[in-house]
Design goal:
heterodimer, A: alpha+beta, Heat Shock Protein 90, 5-stranded antiparallel beta sheet, 4 helices, 5 strands, about 40% helix, B: alpha/beta, Transcription Regulator spoIIAA, globular
Chain lengths: ~130, ~120
């Protein structure tokens, strides 16, 4: 019962709104509670904002998934931006290089169940997060 | 999408829509401060009942609005943060420290009326 995959291109702050709205719709369709749909939409908003702030453009991929934990949603944010030199530092609360709050990545990790990040300086960043339906 | 700002006596009421972009929020910040100056308002109520997501940018903008308005000698009250949005904000580590909040528009108005009644007496 996985919903089809949706891709949202992220090029401006308007696209942040589009991405999180599509994420909420998909979370609702997958049967997430509206509270969890809000957590997912908030995480998407932060991930999309990171793309706009650091890489200018990229994409958010949303996908319904099935696993041993049941039904879930996979959100993949990818860009070909400057990448992150020190991932451990980027995952620390309060760290930011763009003058923002610096809550983005650690906050997203708390909002979701699974969190994976790969980044190559000069090549780009990919953040994959999952949340399972309760 | 522009945020309507309503003048109600000495107060201004700004009602957020669901899908506010960063640009909309920045525009609102400027608009509110200008209107506070223009109308010599005592307080601003920002109604976020319709907001679907309060991410780090939105909450930072709200704090900035409150701070700017305080520098003008007026007060800001944020009303209508939905329970689910509040939960997500806490998980994300976002705070609205130093900004007054109230359950809804009615409570926000009651809070301000009480506050300014007391101030006027004292």
């Amino acid at each position: 019962m996985s919903a089809s995959e949706i891709r949202v291109e992220i090029n401006s702050d308007q696209d942040i709104v589009i991405a999180r709205q599509k994420g909420r719709v998909m979370a609702n369709e997958l049967g997430f509670s509206s509270g969890d749909a809000t957590l997912i939409a908030t995480a998407i908003s932060e991930l999309a904002r990171n793309i706009v702030s650091y890489a200018r453009s990229g994409e958010i991929k949303l996908k319904g998934i099935n696993g041993s934990n049941g039904v879930g949603i996979l959100v993949v944010a990818s860009d070909a931006g400057p990448g992150i030199i020190d991932i451990r530092q980027a995952l620390r609360d309060g760290f930011s290089t763009s003058g923002s709050l610096g809550l983005g990545l650690p906050g997203v990790r708390r909002l979701m169940d699974e969190f994976e990040i790969t980044s190559q300086p000069g090549k780009g960043t990919m953040v994959a997060v999952k949340k399972w339906r309760q | 999408m522009e945020v309507p700002i309503l003048k109600q006596g000495a107060f201004l009421i700004a009602t957020f829509q669901a899908a506010l972009s960063d640009a909309d929020l920045n525009q609102l910040r400027m608009g509110l401060v200008q209107q506070v100056v223009k109308f010599r308002s005592r307080a601003v109520i920002v109604d976020v009942t319709a907001m679907d997501v309060m991410d780090s940018f939105a909450s930072r903008t709200l704090r900035e609005i409150a701070h700017m308005i305080r520098l003008r000698g007026a007060e800001t009250v944020i009303v209508g943060i939905q329970p689910e949005v509040a939960f997500a904000m806490v998980q994300l580590g976002l705070t609205l420290e130093g900004v007054a909040t109230a359950l809804d528009l009615e409570e926000g108005l009651a809070y301000l009326n009480e506050k300014f009644r007391i101030t006027n007496r004292g």
